[in-house]
Structure formats: structure tokens, C-alpha cells
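Thread: "does anyone have the structure for this chain?"

Original post by V.I.:
We have the sequence but no experimental structure in hand. Need at least a predicted one for the grant figures.
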Amino acid sequence: MNAIYGLFPDSQSARRAVATLRAESSRLHFVPEAIVIISAAPLEEEGFGWEEQHSIMPWLAPLGAIVGGTCGYLLSAFTQRTYPLPTGGMPIVAMWPTGIIMYELTMLGAILTTIVAFLVSAQLPHYGKHVYDPEVTNGKILVGVADPDPNCRGEIEKHLHASGAAQVKEFSKE
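Reply from O.Q.:
Generated one for you, C-alpha cells below.
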């Protein structure tokens, strides 16, 4: 990944840069999701305007629970039918013991599905290089564009300087 980014001393100038880059994104040939913001402190209260990203995780967790519960029933019923014990006229597949196994595998299915969905949606583990600058640990805020159009790099650099960037740098994967 190649990137061009600016290091901003305060959140107001970083917010200005984000707003400018979002407004100019179509003209500079990049999608607004390509804007990278990194800070040493959380910026939720600063109003950077991150749009809520939609995820299928709320749908996958119940689906995993249903699959887990179904597997729990099938496991328990298969085991009880494979090894039939004399039950004195009662059903071979008893629902109370089966219910316990179903409950446990329902929870296991929901939890494992949630963990896998989180890892996939967060793209973890990711062994590639990420945009980063050591100045972020000193309180600077990094705002940049990942994989910008090579013809628009100069203009992106101008926008970052005009928004108040203390430094503008380039990041290369190599």
C-alpha cells in the first residue's frame, strides 16, 4: 500500500483535513473510505464524522446459534438412538438432557461465529505493512489517503498543507 499523509498538531486541523479530503475525494480520484486517520488517543468525541459501517455480524451470530443448537440436538439424538437404553416406555430421545446439550452448543455456535466474523471483518491477522508514523506516539494526528492516484499526489499534498499539516510524508510498502 502506498499513501500520502500529513501529521497534524491538533484535532481541529486534522478535522479540517478530513473534511477537505472527503469533499475533494471524487475530484482527486479516491473513495472516502481510503482516508486514513491514526491518533494516539481516541477521537470519537472530536466529531470526525466516521460513518457507521454496516456489518453482517448481527445476522451471523443468531445464525451460528441456530446451527449450533441444531448440531446439539442432532448430536444428542444420534447418540441416544445409537446406544438405546431401556427407558420403560418413555421416549428414547429425552428432551431435558438434550436441551442442555442444545443450549451449550447454541452458545458455542454464537460465540465462535461472532469471533470468526469479527476477525474476518477486522481483517485480522494482517501481516502487511500499515500506514504509521512514530510521531503519532508524540501526540500528532495522522491523516492521509491510502493508494492515491499518482497524478493527484501533489494536489492531495497541497490540501494537507492548507489544512494545517506540520509535515506531509509519503508511505511506501517497499
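V.I.: this helps a lot. Residues 3-53+129-171 form a domain with the Alpha-Beta Plaits fold (CATH 3.30.70).
O.Q.: and The CA atoms of residues 73 and 99 lie 8 Å apart.
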